Sequence to fold (217 residues):
Amino acid sequence: MSDAKKVKRKAGRPKEKLSLNTDDILRVALRSFAKKGYGGVTLHALAKETGVADSLLHYHFGNKEELWKRSLKLVGDIIYKELDNLFRLINDMEGLEKLRLYNKKIVQVSAEYPEFQQVVVQEVFSDSGRSAWLIETLLQPTFQFMEDILIQEKQKGTIKDVPGATLNSFIIGSITTLFSRSFQMKIMYGIDSFDPSVVDSHADIINDLIFHGLMKD
Fold:
């Protein structure tokens, strides 16, 4: 019998030829979900795009929905942390000034992470488990910074008593549409929504329009 015995490989973790950077995989996945929609993405196609074996992708992420959730949570957590850090710094400011800075930060992160906004736009129209998870896990905590300010300012009588759903739609929609519909903006107005000068101008104009509309006479 040959001394070179074949050793049967034990079941378990797939062998990795290269180290796997899960954050990089998640960012590629998020771009793919934004471009193709949830139904247009397969783990097999993502494996080919990232150069990772299908088995390794399944091992680390389980299934497509889990990969979708983790890709969104990666960026959603970054956005939340940026807002949390901002509000820790501006804790002593007046509510309306906090709202101005919140709006500006949302403009900036919308421009920085357009794939996140694109997936949000795709999902929140439907009544599904994915949509509910996205709203409850990522969107509500992010918008709560704004909601708290608006409730306080309405109670103080400094802004109009607009229904919460209308007010949220008015503020968030006016901020993010420029980026979630960037191709439309390019075709219709010939602008690059992600140009730094466009982003800065958008933040200033949106704040001006929002506050002129919200303030009581």
Remarks:
- The CA atoms of residues 179 and 193 lie 6 Å apart.
